[in-house]
Amino acid sequence: MADTLKNHGLARVEGLSTLARDDDPLSDLGRFVVGLAQCLHDDVRLRAAFRLLTDEAEAQLPGHPLGQVVEQVIGMVERARRDGRIAAGHAPGDMTGCCCA
After folding, report:
1. Is residue 26 assigned to a domain?
2. Total of domains in the chain
3. Residue 86, by phi and psi: left (phi above 0), alpha (psi -120 to 50) or beta?
4. pLDDT tens-digit profile of 14-62?
5. How far is CA 85 from CA 18, 26, 37, in A?
6. 0.85 cut: is pTM over it?
């Protein structure tokens, strides 16, 4: 049951990556974050999947599914910084609350 929930959650998050169209990195970031928030609000199974994933000890390891979500957001922030949409003084880790960038 837990693996089924986690697989569902990962599929939903992977589907959100289609919201990033690469036309404007800051807009991509906004669409991704709003889409994720909406999915988490609407989908109890996605919330359960996130709970299971965050409870796992390896959640902090690179390559973990939630780590992949953080990496995707960091990539969007980095693109927005390169395009001048986010001030260069803001590190992606500052914006994601993650110390890994």
Report:
1. yes
2. 1
3. beta
4. 888 776 666 788 888 888 888 888 988 999 998 898 888 877 755 566 6
5. 21, 7, 22
6. no
- The shares of helix, strand and coil residues in the chain, as percent rounded to the nearest 5, are 75, 0, 25
Report if residue 19 sits inside a domain.
yes
Residues 6+ apart with CB under 8 A from 30: none
Q: What is the 3-state secondary structure (H, E, C) of 9-31?
A: HHHHHHHHHHHCCCCCHHHHHHH
Phi–psi pair at 86, nearest 5 degrees: -125, 135
Give the burial class of 61: count Cβ atoms within 10 A of its Cβ; 0-12 exposed, 13-18 middle, 19 or more buried: exposed
Residue 41 lies in a domain: yes
Residue span of the structural domain in which 56 resides: 2-96
